[in-house]
């Protein structure tokens, strides 16, 4: 198996794993940025728990029947078979449905009981109704095997699902729909969660035109803002903006000043490369009222080499490339985990699979490459055009095939594939 943990020592380029380590360390230094809020249970889907949830009751809260049938005492069953009969009869002393509070079972009687109903405190057996025969006089006939049953047969004990004082969920969990039902089962009607992380989206480039407006010569529609907005919204974060920075240093600084005043984190696309009109990196380095800096720039990955990490006026800044497909790759491989961490969420690594390549590469490169790809029954197919400007490849794919630096892939090789969801199903 080819691994993506190979370090690229190309001068001036930061290896992917080093970049991830730096982002993780900085996220820990920032800590959890959003404050907390307490919300009603129906409002916390996909929100991040801000405190542990500890059960204050057993679930279920009482011993209950696992099926429709009859509740008995084993000692009564055994006494009824002293004459070595193959069958024995018992009268019905009570009828118990779900929600009823049963009385203790009278000696030498049985209770008609239904699934989920509480069993009498002195009952230690439930017999399914299919094993029984109701006689004309109302008594119930049981087979001899009942007297030899194990205690608590067909009884779900209190606390079988969740026990009192058990930690049900820990802080940092992203709450799923199923979790809401579990919370309801222990009586939670409201939950303390982190407020949504405020992320400002900034696009840079005089060539960009907002969708809905006509294109003129040399112009293209702004796609990166909408890609980032969708990715952030799927993570449950609050989008600030989007902002647009013209290709001047002054305008870029003005936009960053506004964004830093409103958001917890800033994500930019474009303007972090080496061109004369790339002003994001320079604007961050010069800083605002509270200063700024670029800590990391130029990574050993393809696409996505011009990726920057810095801060501006105290707000962390993630500078993504301008090419649309590179935005998607760097968001998933780098920005996403940083955002989850400062949002307060537990680690949500992308789903990593091993599959057989249905493609070949012609030559090796000195950067880890992520190819837009599909995973199908253990095989990995790549999009036919891997240009970083081909955004449709991201819609076609459901993940990335990883080609480590210095590696040539032959068809049939086992390689790593990063799915665009986590093992828990989150984006």
Give a description of the structure.
The chain is of the alpha/beta class and 427 residues long. The protein folds into 3 domains: 265 residues, Molybdenum Cofactor Biosythetic Enzyme, Chain A (3-Layer(aba) Sandwich), CATH 3.40.980; 48 residues, Molybdopterin biosynthesis moea protein, domain 2 (Alpha-Beta Complex); 93 residues, Molybdopterin biosynthesis moea protein, domain 3 (Molybdopterin biosynthesis moeA protein, domain 3). The strands form 8 sheets. Strands 17-14-18-22-21-19 form a 6-stranded mixed beta sheet, with helices on both faces. The protein has a 5-stranded mixed barrel with strand order 23-25-24-26-27. The longest helix is centred in the C-terminal third of the chain and has 20 residues.
Topology:
Blueprint (H helix, E strand, L loop, with lengths): L15 H15 L5 E5 L12 E2 L9 E2 L3 E4 L1 H7 L6 E4 L1 E5 L13 E4 L11 E4 L4 E2 L5 E4 L11 E2 L10 E3 L7 H9 L4 E5 L3 E7 L3 E2 L10 E2 L2 H11 L3 E8 L3 H14 L2 E5 L10 H7 L5 E6 L3 E2 L5 E5 L2 E6 L3 H20 L6 E8 L10 E9 L2 E4 L9 H5 L2 E5 L10 E9 L5
Parallel strand pairs: 6-7, 14-17, 14-18, 15-16, 18-22, 20-24, 23-25
Antiparallel strand pairs: 1-13, 2-12, 3-11, 4-7, 4-8, 5-10, 9-10, 19-21, 21-22, 23-27, 24-25, 24-26, 26-27
């Amino acid at each position: 198996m080819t691994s993506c943990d190979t370090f690229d020592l190309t001068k001036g380029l930061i290896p992917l794993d080093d970049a991830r380590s730096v982002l993780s360390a900085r996220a820990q230094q920032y800590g959890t940025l959003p404050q907390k809020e307490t919300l009603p249970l129906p409002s916390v889907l996909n929100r991040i728990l801000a405190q542990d949830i500890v059960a204050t009751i057993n679930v279920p809260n009482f011993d209950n029947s696992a099926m429709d049938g009859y509740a008995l005492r084993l000692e009564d069953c055994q006494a009824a078979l002293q004459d070595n009969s193959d069958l024995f009869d018992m009268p019905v002393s009570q009828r118990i449905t779900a929600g009823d509070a049963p009385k203790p079972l009278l000696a030498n009687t049985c209770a008609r009981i239904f699934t989920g109903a509480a069993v009498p405190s002195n009952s230690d057996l439930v017999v399914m109704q299919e094993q029984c025969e109701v006689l004309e006089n109302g008594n119930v006939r049981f087979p001899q095997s009942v007297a030899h049953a194990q205690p608590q047969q067909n009884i779900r004990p209190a606390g079988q699902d969740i026990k009192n004082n058990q930690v049900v969920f820990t802080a940092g969990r992203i709450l799923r729909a199923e979790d809401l039902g579990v919370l309801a089962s222990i009586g939670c009607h409201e939950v303390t969660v982190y407020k949504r992380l405020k992320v400002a989206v900034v696009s840079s480039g005089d060539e960009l035109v907002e969708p809905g407006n006509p294109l003129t010569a040399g112009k293209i529609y702004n796609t990166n803002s909408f890609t980032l907005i969708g990715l952030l919204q799927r993570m449950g974060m609050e989008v600030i903006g989007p902002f647009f920075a013209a290709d001047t240093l002054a305008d870029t600084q003005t936009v960053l000043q506004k964004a830093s005043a409103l958001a917890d984190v800033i994500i930019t696309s474009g303007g972090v490369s080496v061109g004369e009109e790339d002003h994001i990196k320079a604007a961050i380095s010069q800083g605002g009222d509270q200063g700024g800096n670029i800590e990391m720039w130029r990574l050993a990955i393809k696409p996505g080499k011009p990726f920057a990490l810095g801060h501006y006026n105290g707000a962390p800044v993630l500078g993504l490339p301008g090419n649309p497909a590179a935005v998607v790759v760097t968001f998933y491989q780098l920005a996403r985990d940083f955002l989850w961490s400062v949002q307060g969420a537990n680690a949500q690594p992308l789903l990593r699979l091993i599959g057989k390549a249905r493609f070949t590469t012609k030559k090796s490169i000195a950067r880890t490459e992520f190819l837009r790809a599909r995973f199908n029954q253990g095989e990995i197919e790549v999009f036919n055009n891997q240009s970083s400007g081909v955004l449709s490849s991201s819609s076609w794919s459901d993940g990335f095939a990883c080609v480590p630096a210095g590696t040539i892939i032959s068809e049939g090789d086992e390689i790593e594939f990063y799915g665009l969801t986590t093992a828990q199903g989150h984006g």
